[in-house]
Design a protein that fits this description.
Oligomer: heterodimer
CATH topology of chain A: OB fold (Dihydrolipoamide Acetyltransferase, E2P)
Shape of chain A: globular
Distance between the termini of chain A: 10 Å
Radius of gyration of chain B: 21 Å
Strand order of the largest sheet of chain A: 1-2-3-9-8-5
Structural class of chain A: alpha+beta
CATH topology of the largest domain in chain B: Gyrase A, domain 2
CATH superfamily of chain A: RNA polymerase II/Efflux pump adaptor protein, barrel-sandwich hybrid domain
Largest sheet of chain A: 6 strands, antiparallel
Number of strands of chain A: 9
CATH class of chain A: Mainly Beta
Number of strands of chain B: 19
CATH architecture of chain A: Beta Barrel
Largest interface: A-B, 13 and 17 residues
Number of helices of chain A: 4
Distance between the termini of chain B: 47 Å
Strand content of chain B: 25-35%
Radius of gyration of chain A: 13 Å
Shape of chain B: globular
């Protein structure tokens, strides 16, 4: 299972990549493997203000719909349209072309509470 | 609740094959081995094998077995030849569905009932109670019935597998023998295998040709491995409950607990074909006659989404011109049609094929159209 060292991770299997004041968010390799066959992705609109742990995107496999949460409070600045056109990108390239949205973080202190790769690796056993 | 999940005689095989195991109706079952879509396509284009050992198996035997079952079940038992099976319902007195099952006449006076996993205990209690009720006559009658219709629950001692797909017949000849006659559609026959006897029925839940195989638990692993080994040349894949669900939904075969329930009767579900109202007596008959006379208030319809969008799911609201007319009971993205499909109970006046609907998904409305069943038809 791929768990890149340069990312942060949530309990709910989102990955977080710091990009200045923003974070890029997607779901982990482990999460996509659990879901398998992603057939539909809904991403938030740019400009939307979101709270931490608010459901902002939806990733659906044939079997079920899964909510994806904003890791921290902030504003959506960009969403990945390619992944809504081609949901399989979440399966084939979860840390790359399968990213979901970019969030401008309201308070950078909020980013302190996430897991590093080692801690996330432990979570997924 | 809180009880340990039950395992089947094939659980070890699934774990060895790397299946993703999930709880289903109190059982630990494989939901998929590699990919739900790949397993679905294997069944549509080649061959798949499913563990269905979680389903219950009852034996009813005795001189009065046929007449007693005819009063318990909706379809007409008298129409069954020896070795023939039929789809039928066990109803409560309100005509509501306790279970849908397959009844095989495995001998002149011997029957096999294959029932849903989640309903084994409830069906068993219901049948037991009715055998007792029926025997509440004079002592001599009671003895008569006890010796003439006996009920046996062999669910724990038997396993079962479904082998489904267009290559099923070729597989049968390679597996059982080119000189052996396969059972005809809906028939069942016994064959020697792995030092024991297995029963092979030409039935299934996928819309493809195929077999359902019943075997003693002791030889389950051997039967499974032998089928997979012979099946390799036919492109056989082990398939999980995920693909089983999408395959059956494309065919509009109902799933008890989702599309069927004690609050729904077979006429509302569009399954009147499996109810013989001309029989003089069976549990739920009066309620069904009344329902037929009054006309069903709601009907189980099949629909297809008009365009791309999120897949429809159970419990989403169904609307007509913005007004709520029903609720989805089963929904998914169809791997064969690559569009959202489902079934829903809707008010009878909106239930005709061609009627436009909307499905409400996370506050948004997506257009759909009622279709004739089944939703999937094999390409000619």
């Amino acid at each position: 299972m791929n768990v890149p060292d340069d990312l942060l991770y949530t309990e709910t299997h989102e990955w977080i990549k710091r990009e200045g004041d923003n974070i890029r968010v997607g779901i982990t390799d482990h999460a996509q493997a659990e879901l398998t066959d992603v057939v539909f992705v809904e991403v938030p609109k740019a400009g939307r203000e979101v709270n931490a742990k608010e459901a902002v995107a939806v990733v659906e496999s044939v079997k079920a719909a899964s909510d994806i949460y904003a890791p921290v409070k902030g504003t959506i600045v960009e969403a990945n349209d390619a992944v809504t056109q081609n949901p399989a990108l979440v399966n084939t390239d979860p840390f790359g072309q399968g990213w979901l949205f970019v969030l401008k973080v309201a308070n950078s202190e909020d980013l302190k509470n996430f897991k590093d790769a080692a801690a996330y690796m432990q979570q997924i056993g | 609740m809180g009880d340990a999940l039950k395992t089947t005689p094939l659980t070890h095989e699934h774990v060895t094959l790397g299946a993703k195991m999930v709880p289903f109706a109190g059982w630990l079952m494989p939901v998929q081995y590699t990919s739900l879509v790949a397993e679905h396509q294997a069944v549509r284009n080649a061959l798949g094998i499913f563990d269905i050992s979680h389903m219950g198996q009852f034996i009813v035997s005795g001189e009065r077995a046929a007449s007693w079952l005819n009063e318990m079940l909706t379809n007409n038992v008298a129409r069954l030849e020896v070795r023939q099976g039929q789809y039928t319902f066990l109803l409560n007195e309100r005509g509501g569905i306790i279970d849908d099952l397959i009844l095989y006449r495995i001998g002149d006076t011997e029957f096999l009932l294959v029932v849903n996993a989640a309903k084994i205990e409830e069906d068993w209690r219901w049948l037991k109670a009715h055998v007792r009720q029926a025997s509440n006559g004079t002592p001599s009658e009671e003895r008569n019935l006890e010796t003439c219709a006996t009920l046996k629950n062999r669910s724990a001692e038997f396993g079962a597998a479904a082998i489904q797909g267009p290559r099923a017949l070729g597989f049968f000849r390679a597996w059982i023998g080119g000189d052996k006659e396969p059972p005809s559609r809906n028939f069942i026959a016994d064959f020697p295998m792995a030092g024991g006897t297995i029963s092979i029925a030409r039935t299934g839940y996928t819309g493809e040709d195929g077999f359902e195989v019943f075997f003693p638990a002791e030889i389950a692993g051997e039967v499974w491995r032998s089928a997979l080994s012979v099946g390799a040349q036919f492109g056989m894949k082990p398939c999980g409950l995920g693909a089983r669900d999408t395959l059956r939904l494309e065919m509009c075969y109902p799933l008890n607990g989702s599309d069927l329930s004690p609050e729904r009767n077979p006429l509302e579900a569009g399954l009147g074909l499996f109810v013989d109202l001309s029989k003089s007596r069976f549990a739920g008959r009066e309620a069904l006659l009344a329902s037929k006379a009054n006309g069903a208030r709601e009907r189980l319809i099949a629909f297809k989404m008009d365009g791309k969008g999120p897949p429809p799911r159970p419990h989403y609201a169904v609307l007509n011109n913005g007004e709520r007319v029903g609720e989805i009971t089963s929904g998914t993205l169809s791997p064969s049609l690559n569009i959202g499909i489902g079934m829903a109970y809707v008010s009878a006046e909106y239930a005709r094929p061609g009627t436009p609907l909307e499905v409400e998904i996370r506050g948004q409305k997506f257009p759909a159209t009622i279709e004739k069943k089944p939703l999937y038809k094999k390409p000619a």
